[in-house]
Amino acid sequence: MALSDRLLRRKQEEAESQSVFGEILDWMLMPLLLIWPLSVILIQGVANSIADDPYDKALAENTLAIARLVSVRADRIKVDITPQVRSILYRDESDTLFYQVLGFNNELVAGEIAIHWVDPPLKLEYEKPYFRDGEIRGEEVRIAYVYLKPLPDRDPVLVQMAETRNKRNALASRIISGVTLPQFAIIPLAVLLVWVGLSRGIAPLNRFGKAIRRRLPTDLSPIPTSGVPEEVKPVIHAFNDMMARLEQNLQGQQRFIGDAAHQMRTPLTGLKMQTELALQETDPELIRASLRNIAESADRAARLINQLLTLARAEASHEKSHTIELVDLEALAREATLEWLPAAMEKRIDLGFEGTGWPLQVSGNPLLLRELIVNLIDNAVKYTPTGGRITVRTRASEFAVLEVEDDGPGIPEDERDLIFERFYRVLGNEAQGSGLGLAIAREIAELHRGSVQLKAGPDGRGTLAQAVFPRRRFTISALLAQSPEKFQPSL
Length: 491
Fold this sequence. Notes:
Elements (H helix, E strand, L loop, with lengths): L2 H14 L3 H49 L1 E4 L2 E4 L3 H8 L6 E6 L5 E4 L18 E7 L2 E10 L8 E8 L1 H36 L1 H12 L18 H48 L3 H32 L1 H5 L3 E4 H11 L1 H6 L3 E5 L6 E4 L1 H18 L5 E8 L2 E8 L30 H11 L3 E6 L6 E8 L5 H7 L9
Parallel strand pairs: 9-11
Antiparallel strand pairs: 1-2, 3-4, 3-7, 5-6, 6-7, 8-10, 11-12, 12-14, 13-14
Helix pairs in contact: 2-4, 6-7, 7-12, 9-11, 11-12
C-alpha cells in the first residue's frame, strides 16, 4: 500500500473515531441542558407560591372586611358597603377586585355574579379564609372566600373576593429573572470549568500517546506506571501485555527463521552433492540409485519444510485468534489412521484404531489438530520396528483424550521431556527424522489449552503418546443431528 493511501486511510479512521473527551463532555453537558429547563419550571412554581403569599394575606383581610359588613335583620341579609370600603375595592391601579355575598339559598345579595359558587369543605370553619384560583370573563383571578353563620338553623352565608393576578405575575417574573439570569453566567462558567477539568484529566493519556510515539520501532519494553493515575493504569497494563505478546511473537518468528535456515542447509547441501555425483556417473544403475537418493532427500526436505511451516502457523498470533470451530477429534484420528495404513503395511506394522463410537468434540483448528495426530502417528510408524504393533485410541472422560501406543524401543524416562525440544534426537536412533514432530505436537496442544506427554507402554514396552484437550459436552439434539443413524430402530 502506498504512503498516500495509508495516510488517507488513517485520516478516514481518525474522522470516524470517537473522542473520549467529547464523549465525557457530552454526557456531562447533556443532563445539564436537560435539567436547566426543568429547573426553570420548578422555579416558576416556587415563584408563584412566593408571590401569592403576601397578596393572599391582603386579599383575606379585604374579604374579612366585607364579611364584617354583613348583617341579618328580620331573616334578611344586608350588606352595608360604605364609601370607605368602596374606595378600597377600586383604588388598586394594577388589579381589579370583585366581591360577592351569597345568601342562605345561594342567592346573590351583593357584588359580582360572575364569581362561581364553591362547595364548602368537609370540615368547615366559619370566618376562616379559604383560597382558590379561578377565572372571570376569561381573565385569571385569585379568590378568597369565607363562610358566615349568622343564624343557628340556617345555611351559611358565602362571602367571596376575587383579584386579578397582575401584581402576582409581576412579582413572580422578578423572582424568576432574579434567579435565572445568573444562571446564564454560571452555565458557561461551569462548561469552561468542565472543559479545563477534562483536559487535565485526560492529560495522562496524551502523555501516554507521546511516550509511545517517541519510542523506536524496536523498543518493546514495558511502559512504567509510576506517577500514572489509577484509571489509566489498566490501559498501560493492557498495552504492556500486548507488547509482551508481540515481542514473544517476534522472537518466535526469529527463532523460526534461524531454525529453518539451519535445518534447510543440510538437505540442500546433500541434494547438491548427490546431484553432482549423479552427473559424474556413467553406469545407468548407479545413476538410477543416485536419482532414488535424490528423490528420498527431496521428500525429506519437503517434509521438513511442511513441518517448519506448520510450526510457524502454530506460533502465529492470527491462527491463535481465528478459525476456531467445533472439531470431532475421533473422526480426525480415524481419518489419519486410515491414511497411514499403507506406510504401516510397508513395514508390516499392525496399525489399528480404537474409538468411543461417538463424536468427541473439542474447540480448535482442524488443520492444526490433524497435524498433531499425523505427527504422533508418524513418530510411532517411524520408530516401531518391522512387524510391530501401533494402536491409535480415543477416550472420553472429563477431557477428550487421544493416545498413540506402540511396542517400539521406547524412550528413556529422563529424555521424555527433552524430546519435545526442537531438533532433539534420541542418541543411538537411526530412524530418519527432523526432530520437529513432537515439538509441533506440543505447540498445537498448548494452543488448544491441552497437553501432550510421553509415557511407557502398559506392559513397560514401547511408548504411549497421550494428548489431552478440554472436551465439549453433547446434548441429545446435537447427537441426533450428527449421528441420526445411531438412534434409528432396526427393522
